Hints:
Layout: E1 2-15, E2 18-31, E3 35-39, H1 46-53, E4 61-66, E5 69-70, H2 76-85, E6 87-91, H3 102-112, H4 117-131, H5 146-158, E7 164-168, H6 176-192, E8 196-200, H7 204-207, E9 212-217, E10 220-226
Parallel strand pairs: 3-8, 3-9, 6-7, 7-8
Antiparallel strand pairs: 1-2, 1-4, 4-5, 9-10
Helix pairs in contact: 3-4, 3-5, 4-5
Amino acid sequence: MSVIEVTDVNRKFRNGKEEAHVLKDINLTVEEGDFVSIMGPSGGGKSTLLYLLGGLDMPTSGSVKINGTDLSTLKDKELCRMRNEEVGFVFQFYNLVPNLSVEDNISLPLMIAGKKRSDYSDKLDECLKIIGMEDKRKLTPRELSGGQQQRVAIARSLVFDPKILFLDEPIGNLDTKTGTGIMQLFREINQKYNKTIVQVTHSEPAAKYGTKLVRLVDGQIRSIEPVTSQPEPI
């Protein structure tokens, strides 16, 4: 079952009289349970494509569908709800609130949605268990390492139990050992919890933790291939 369908997508940006054609005739299908890695040179459109998939931006032409819904047909309020509840985002920078505890940072999307603490306490406990930080729930980001902060960001992306996670260079700020642990966690989330994952990465070793590799060059998909080799330390 396809959860993401991209059809004839183009994305152009205009700066005065100049126009940059960043994505060109993109067609891509992501099936439920896939772990897709998008790779390519810097400036090739990888992050732009990821933002289109997650509804953070809209194509100039073509369509992006999530679970059968064309994102361009959604009103702003519906699109915000979709981004908050149906998909999760993890970025290179952790984007945690410095003065909030670990558990409050994780719960933030639920607080914004007006949920009561009593309604999500079990889900919060589950997310803390997934990232292995039950004993650090009262700490603030200032008291955590970079890897721990990224784990909190991962838990926050899972708290609404989305079907899809979008990752933008999730280990870009981490050392190799910590990055390996984070990629192992994503692999577990994909396999054990059946989350569909789409990541942008410059790292060939990180891409091997997925199931499918998309190579994007100069705004065009050059190849889509299964990942057949076993993951190794980053």
